[in-house]
Design brief:
Helix content: 25-40%
Strand content: 15-25%
Largest sheet: 6 strands, mixed
Radius of gyration: 18 Å
Number of strands: 8
Structural class: alpha/beta
């Protein structure tokens, strides 16, 4: 059996087949895993990650502490949305209460300003996206309870224990997304 603790893999194209994921999932000694899909530029993010499939096929990686997805993208079920446009268009899913995503100071703006003020809309989308990625990380924690760091949706999220019961909670010390993977590269000792 293989005894590898750190693995970083990249694929050309826009997906990783399930058999490959199962093979990776059989390297049970893994503590750090970084997967990326797509071309060599950091600016293209069009990998629609199937996180349920990831959890299912990688579930035997019980020692996993760090998990990273780069060039990942998502959809919001908005008609006509292309995978590579998620971070550009910043669509909300239908029915999203955009006003509730703003901090108190910004929430004081009249509701119609959200439609016209791009900075308010962008701030709301960034919070919505970070919350979405944090929710995804919480699901990963159910499968990989040793996780201490996840890079997902361009967010570096540290897992900290909070509250009386030490509930694992994904938090970011960054105020913005890290779309160039700078924090991930530093963490992994990659300086380019």
């Amino acid at each position: 059996p293989l005894h590898i603790t750190t693995l970083s893999l990249g694929w050309l194209g826009n997906r990783i087949d399930e058999q490959t994921l199962r093979t990776i999932g059989s390297i049970v000694s893994l503590k750090q895993l970084w997967m990326t899909v797509g071309g060599r530029t950091d600016l293209v993010h069009d990998w629609l990650v199937n996180h349920a499939q990831m959890r299912r096929t990688l579930g035997d990686l019980t020692f996993l502490e760090d998990l990273a997805f780069s060039r990942d993208s998502y959809t919001t079920d908005t008609r006509g949305e292309a995978a590579g446009s998620y971070y550009i268009n910043k669509f909300f899913p239908p029915g999203t209460d955009v006003q509730s995503l703003l901090d108190e100071e910004r929430r004081a703006s009249p509701p119609n300003d959200i439609i016209f003020d791009s900075s308010l809309r962008e701030a709301a989308w960034e919070r919505w996206h970070r919350n979405r990625m944090s929710d995804e990380v919480r699901q990963y924690l159910e499968t990989f309870p040793r996780l201490s760091f996840v890079y997902i949706g361009q967010w570096p999220l540290e897992i900290v224990k909070r509250g009386v019961h030490g509930v694992p909670t994904p938090l970011s010390d960054s105020r913005q997304r890290d779309f160039r993977c700078s924090s991930l590269r530093r963490k992994w000792g990659i300086m380019h």
